[in-house]
C-alpha cells in the first residue's frame, strides 16, 4: 500500500513586499511517498527553497494544508512542531551550515542535544552516523580542517543522526566539484536503500537523474512531474 509521508494541498506562500503580493508558491499540490527519491528542479526564484523550507517545517504556508507523516502541521503547537521536525526531518544545505567552533562529532551530536539524548548515547550515535558517511577518522577535525566534500558528509551525518524519515537537501552538491558530488550522491543512494525518503533540489540534470521522480517548478507552481524509475526501495 502506498503511504504518503508528505501531503501538500493547495499551498500558497505569499510575501507582501511591494504593491503586488509575491506568490513564492501558488496553489501547489504535491504528495511524496514513503521511501521515494525525488529531485526538484527549476530556475532560480521558482520557489524550490521555499517549498523545501515548508516541507521541513522551517516555514509555514500562507494558506493550504500540510500533512506530514499523518499529522496536520497546522494543528501542532510550536513545541510539537519542533519535536516532529527534530525526529522526522533531516536537512542538508548547499553551504553545509556547520558550526565552525565545533568538531565534526560535536556538530553531528547537536540534534541529539536538542532531543535530550544523554551524553553516552549521543557519542555512540554520532560516531555511528560519521561511520555511515565514511568520516569516523575525522571526528575531531573542525570544519576548516575538512574539505568541502568532507564537510558535506559531516552535515549529512548530522542530518541522519536522529534517524529521520525524510532527508531534505537543498542543492547539496552545488558547492562541490563533480567528482566529490558523485561521492555525495552515492551516499544519498545508500540512504534511500535504507528506507529514508530523500527530497533534493538540484540544478544538475545528472544529479536529478539518480532520483526516481523529477518534479519541475516555475513561478511557484509545478510544471511537470515524472517518475523516471520505480521506487528503489519498497519499505515494509
Ligand atoms: N523572505 C522572503 N521575502 C520576500 N520574498 C522572498 C523571500 N524568500 C523568497 N522570496 C521570493 O520567493 C521566490 C522564490 O524563492 P526561492 O528562494 O524559493 O527560489 P529558488 O527556486 O530556491 O531559487 P534558487 O535556485 O536561486 O535557490 C523568489 O521570487 C524570491 O525572491
Ligand atoms: Mg533556493
Structure description:
This protein has one domain: Rossmann fold (3-Layer(aba) Sandwich), CATH 3.40.50. The longest helix is centred in the C-terminal third of the chain and has 16 residues. Strand 4 and strand 5 form a beta hairpin. It is α/β, with parallel strands linked by helices and 236 residues long. Helix 5 runs parallel beside helix 6. Bound molecules: adenosine-5'-triphosphate (ATP) and magnesium ion (MG). Magnesium ion (MG) binds next to helix 1.
| Uncertain runs | none
Overall outline: globular
Distance between the ends: 9 Å
CATH architecture classification name: 3-Layer(aba) Sandwich
What gyration radius follows from the Cα positions, in whole Å? 18 Å
The largest sheet, given as strand count, sense and whether it forms a barrel, is: 6 strands, mixed
Task: Please render the helix and strand layout as text.
Layout: E1 4-16, E2 21-33, E3 37-42, H1 48-55, E4 63-68, E5 71-72, H2 78-88, E6 89-93, H3 104-114, H4 119-132, H5 148-160, E7 166-170, H6 178-193, E8 197-201, H7 205-208, E9 213-218, E10 221-227
Parallel strand pairs: 3-8, 3-9, 6-7, 7-8
Antiparallel strand pairs: 1-2, 1-4, 4-5, 9-10
Amino acid at each position: 500500500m502506498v503511504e504518503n509521508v508528505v501531503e501538500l494541498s493547495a499551498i500558497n506562500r505569499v510575501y507582501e513586499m511591494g504593491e503586488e503580493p509575491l506568490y513564492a508558491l501558488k496553489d501547489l499540490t504535491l504528495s511524496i511517498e514513503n521511501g521515494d527519491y525525488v529531485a526538484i528542479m527549476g530556475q532560480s526564484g521558482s520557489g524550490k527553497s521555499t517549498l523545501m523550507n515548508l516541507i521541513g517545517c522551517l516555514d509555514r504556508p500562507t494558506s493550504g494544508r500540510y500533512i506530514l507523516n499523518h499529522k496536520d502541521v497546522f494543528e501542532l503547537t510550536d513545541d510539537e512542531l519542533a519535536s516532529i521536525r527534530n525526529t522526522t526531518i533531516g536537512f542538508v544545505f548547499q553551504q553545509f551550515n556547520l558550526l565552525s567552533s565545533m568538531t565534526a562529532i560535536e556538530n553531528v551530536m547537536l540534534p541529539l542535544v536538542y532531543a535530550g539524548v544523554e551524553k553516552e548515547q549521543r557519542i555512540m550515535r554520532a560516531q555511528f552516523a560519521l561511520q555511515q558517511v565514511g568520516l569516523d577518522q575525522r571526528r575531531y577535525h573542525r570544519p576548516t580542517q575538512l574539505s568541502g566534500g568532507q564537510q558535506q558528509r559531516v552535515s549529512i551525518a548530522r542530518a541522519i543522526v536522529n534517524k529521520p524519515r525524510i532527508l531534505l537537501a537543498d542543492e547539496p552538491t552545488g558547492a562541490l566539484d563533480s567528482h566529490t558530488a558523485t561521492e555525495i550522491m552515492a551516499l544519498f543512494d545508500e540512504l534511500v536503500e535504507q528506507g529514508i525518503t530523500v527530497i533534493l533540489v538540484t540544478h544538475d540534470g545528472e544529479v536529478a537523474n539518480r532520483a526516481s521522480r523529477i518534479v519541475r517548478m516555475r513561478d511557484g507552481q509545478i510544471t511537470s512531474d515524472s517518475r523516471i524509475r520505480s521506487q528503489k526501495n519498497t519499505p515494509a
